[in-house]
Amino acid sequence: AQSVAQPEDQVNVAEGNPLTVKCTYSVSGNPYLFWYVQYPNRGLQFLLKYITGDNLVKGSYGFEAEFNKSQTSFHLKKPSALVSDSALYFCAVRFHGGATNKLIFGTGTLLAVQP
Amino acid sequence: GAVVSQHPSWVICKSGTSVKIECRSLDFQATTMFWYRQFPKQSLMLMATSNEGSKATYEQGVEKDKFLINHASLTLSTLTVTSAHPEDSSFYICSAPFPLLAKNIQYFGAGTRLSVL
């Protein structure tokens, strides 16, 4: 079964410090991995994706993620956190088989950046 | 700017009434759209895949007679919550895969908060 796990419900970090939001996955075949961010009462916004190529993927708002095949991880990172980064972050994997582009989401990680 | 528009953003209705939520792709065609439900502080639960010109595909446990989906055109999918009850109160979000080069990216509507009294 294909799945994605976000082991942390919440991550707290001080402004200016680096941040990491963890994600691990389980898929058959090559994974298509995504990170989305959700602000309160809003839909999800695309941050970045890994399909193939370089393991380090750069995305919007200074975020990046590293695909690690041996550890089946796709952690989201940012060198210097901003208070405005505080939001709910979702990792997702594209479902292979059935409807094209069907996504499976992790449970989400609330990022709280303190000033 | 937004590439997927969802309307309304917030609706309050009485128990027993039906509510229609619209999801539109802006400036691109979407033969497939997805409908999600999100409870407070929880992840998105895929409810169904909306297919233009054919029946929607519902996920296990989702009542198709309760949540009617119509994808009548290449830019519009609607979700109708029929005979709504308080337990249907939730945040409903639609998405559409953006075609061509970015076809693997889904774009999401801003969501609809449904409150059933």
Describe what you observe in this structure.
Chain A has no helices and 12 strands. Chain A starts with a strand and ends with a strand. Chain A is mainly beta. Chain B starts with a strand and ends with a strand. Chain B is built from no helices and 11 strands. By secondary structure, chain B is mainly beta. In chain B, the strands form 2 sheets. In chain B, strands 2, 4, 5, 6, 9, 10 and 11 form a 7-stranded mixed β-sheet that branches. A 4-stranded antiparallel β-sheet of chain B has the order 1-3-8-7, with no helix packed on it. Chain B has strands at residues 4-7, 10-13, 19-25, 32-38, 44-51, 57-58, 67-73, 76-81, 90-97, 106-108, 112-116. The model of chain B has no long low-confidence stretch (mean pLDDT 90). In chain B, strand 4 and strand 5 form a beta hairpin. The chains are: A mainly beta (115), B mainly beta (117). Chains A and B meet through strand 6 and strand 11 of A and strand 5, strand 9 and strand 10 of B.
Topology, element by element:
The complex is a heterodimer of chains A (115) and B (117).
Chain A: E1 3-5, E2 10-14, E3 19-21, E4 24-26, E5 33-38, E6 44-50, E7 56-58, E8 64-68, E9 73-78, E10 87-94, E11 103-105, E12 109-114
Parallel strand pairs in A: 2-12
Antiparallel strand pairs in A: 1-4, 3-9, 5-6, 5-10, 7-8, 8-9, 10-11, 10-12
Chain B: E1 4-7, E2 10-13, E3 19-25, E4 32-38, E5 44-51, E6 57-58, E7 67-73, E8 76-81, E9 90-97, E10 106-108, E11 112-116
Parallel strand pairs in B: 2-11
Antiparallel strand pairs in B: 1-3, 3-8, 4-5, 4-9, 5-6, 7-8, 9-10, 9-11
What's the alpha carbon Rg of chain A, rounded to whole Å? 14 Å
> Which range does the strand content of chain B fall in?
over 45%
Structural class of chain A: mainly beta
User: So what's the oligomer here?
Assistant: heterodimer
Shape of chain A: globular
Give the strand tally of chain B: 11
Number of helices of chain A: 0
Biggest chain pair contact, residues each?
A-B, 25 and 26 residues
Span from first to last CA of chain A?
A: 41 Å
SSE run of chain A = EEEEEEEEEEEE
> Mean pLDDT of chain B, rounded to whole units?
90
Q: Could you tell me how far the N terminus lies from the C terminus of chain B, measured between alpha carbons in angstroms?
A: 34 Å
**Radius of gyration of chain B, Cα only, in angstroms?**
14 Å
- Estimate percent helicity of chain A: under 10%
